[in-house]
Write a structure and sequence with these properties.
InterPro entries: AsnC-type_HTH_dom, Dimeric_a/b-barrel, HTH-Siroheme_Decarb, Tscrpt_reg_AsnC-like, Tscrpt_reg_AsnC/Lrp_C, WH-like_DNA-bd_sf, WH_DNA-bd_sf. One of its GO terms (molecular function) is sequence-specific DNA binding. Keywords: DNA-binding, Transcription, Transcription regulation. The chain is α+β, with helices and mostly antiparallel strands. The chain has two domains: 2-55, Arc Repressor Mutant, subunit A, CATH 1.10.10.10; 74-145, Lrp/AsnC effector binding domain/regulation of amino acid metabolism (RAM) domain (Alpha-Beta Plaits, 2-Layer Sandwich). 38% of the residues lie in helices and 19% in strands. It has six helices and four strands; from the N terminus they run ααααβαββαβ. It has helices at 2-9, 15-26, 32-39, 43-55, 87-95, 121-130, and strands at 74-82, 100-105, 112-118, 138-145. It has a four-stranded antiparallel beta sheet. Helix 2 packs across helix 4 (43-55) and helix 3 crosses helix 4. The longest helix has 13 residues, at 43-55. The two termini are 13 Å apart.
Length: 158
């Protein structure tokens, strides 16, 4: 049953790719020789598969920064309503704002949800007044502050 579920959920990954991804999501610094030994393939196979998955955008090996440890103590999701025919312009502007970490197109009354990271509530206020509220095409916002992260999952493969 578990195998059937995995196959349907990750149908683009064969058994070797799946094994590589499982190993790397546990420890992205795991040597390819160790992964190869566990999977019964050569180190070259693992290296080539990782490169292929990276080239295809299936796999990214990145360091994850803890925002709080980096001094970014206020994290907010902001719903953004956008004027008709201004969506592309608003997204382009938001892409240039350093505090904006994530931009998501959504359904409903707000076309976008953005996530921002700032050091404190004063910086949040400055961001809202001096940046977001000055973006042409933004008609309404709803700020949702994160109080506590209860789950943060980077493991997508079981």
């Amino acid at each position: 049953m578990e195998e059937t579920f995995r196959r349907s959920l990750y149908s683009e990954l064969d058994d070797i790719d799946y094994g590589i991804v499982r190993a790397l999501q546990e420890n992205a610094r795991l040597p390819f020789t160790t992964i190869a030994k566990e999977l019964g393939v050569t180190e070259k196979t693992v290296r080539m598969r990782v490169q292929q998955m990276q080239d295809e955008g299936v796999l990214s090996l990145v360091g994850i920064v803890n925002p709080v440890k980096a001094g970014l103590n206020v994290q907010s999701f902001i719903q953004v309503a956008v004027e008709a025919n201004k969506l592309d312009d608003v997204v382009a502007t938001l892409n240039e704002i350093v505090e904006v970490r994530l931009i998501v197109l959504t359904t409903g009354d707000y076309q976008l949800i953005i996530q921002i990271l700032v050091r404190n509530y004063e910086e949040l206020a400055q961001f809202l007044m001096n940046k977001l509220n000055k973006v042409p095409g933004v008609t309404r916002v709803n700020v949702i502050n994160e109080l506590k992260i209860l789950k943060s999952k980077y493991k997508f493969i079981r």
